[in-house]
């Protein structure tokens, strides 16, 4: 073989070896690059999953906190409602006891009111006849009130007490009024005046005659002329037509 051919063969071998070496060197690099790319993509996917899981975890944590807060609120509210229910039950029990007591009191009060009205009627009949017709009518009205189903027991009791209060006031008041009465067998229109319960006096309109009520004999007694001036003044004072001053009146000793 000539030298020229040997050189050509050697050159070809060297080129082949060089090419093969280059190919062998390029494949691992590409593989590394591909592997790196794959790893990066996998890492990116993993990070995305991690981020999503983290977001879900935060959402679950927030939901859990909301549930815990709601549970605490519900617990506090339920405790509050339970206390309200207990208080209401106690109040209901108290009201039921009061109603029972009221019914019991009502059973005792009604007979008492009837006795009070009877006593009031007896007192009016035994007392000096100050505005007798009005007082008698008041007692009769109380009797009618007691059988009125539209009036409560408390209102009936109030009116009975009010009648007693009015009767009490007659003992401290000085009042004058005009009325017609029978004196000495003759019907006469006169001015009447009472000073508490110590004196009930009548004077004719012409100021010439006067009478005093004697509760012992349950009758009117004629007075002497010496009382006429003081009786006239008493009537004027009762009507607030004259200032109060000392007067002389016939009275009967208290019993």
UniProtKB/TrEMBL annotation:
Q: Which InterPro entries match?
A: UCP028069
Q: Which UniProt keywords apply?
A: Signal
Would you indicate the residue range of the signal peptide?
1-25
Supply the source organism for this entry: Psychrosphaera ytuae
Signal listed as a keyword: yes
Report the protein name in the record: DUF3450 domain-containing protein
Q: Does the keyword Signal apply?
A: yes
């Amino acid at each position: 073989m000539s030298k020229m051919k040997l050189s050509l063969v050697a050159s070809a071998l060297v080129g082949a070896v060089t090419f093969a070496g280059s190919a062998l060197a390029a494949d691992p690099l590409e593989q590394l690059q591909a592997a790196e790319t794959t790893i990066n993509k996998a890492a990116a996917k993993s990070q995305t999953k991690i981020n999503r899981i983290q977001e879900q975890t935060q959402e679950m944590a927030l939901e859990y906190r909301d549930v815990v807060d709601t549970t605490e609120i519900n617990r506090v509210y339920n405790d509050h409602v339970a206390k309200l229910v207990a208080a209401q039950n106690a109040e209901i029990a108290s009201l039921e006891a009061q109603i029972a007591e009221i019914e019991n009191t009502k059973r005792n009060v009604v007979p008492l009111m009837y006795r009070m009205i009877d006593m009031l009627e007896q007192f009016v009949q035994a007392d000096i006849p100050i505005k007798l017709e009005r007082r008698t009518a008041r007692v009769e009205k109380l009797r009618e009130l007691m059988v009125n189903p539209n009036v409560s027991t408390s209102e009936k009791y109030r009116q009975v007490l009010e009648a007693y209060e009015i009767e009490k006031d007659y003992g401290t008041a000085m009042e004058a009024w005009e009325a017609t009465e029978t004196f000495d067998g003759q019907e006469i229109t006169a001015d009447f005046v009472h000073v508490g319960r110590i004196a009930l006096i009548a004077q004719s309109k012409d100021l010439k005659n006067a009478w005093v009520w004697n509760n012992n004999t349950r009758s009117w007694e004629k007075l002497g002329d010496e009382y006429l001036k003081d009786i006239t003044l008493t009537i004027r004072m009762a009507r607030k037509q004259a200032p109060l001053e000392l007067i002389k009146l016939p009275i009967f000793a208290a019993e």
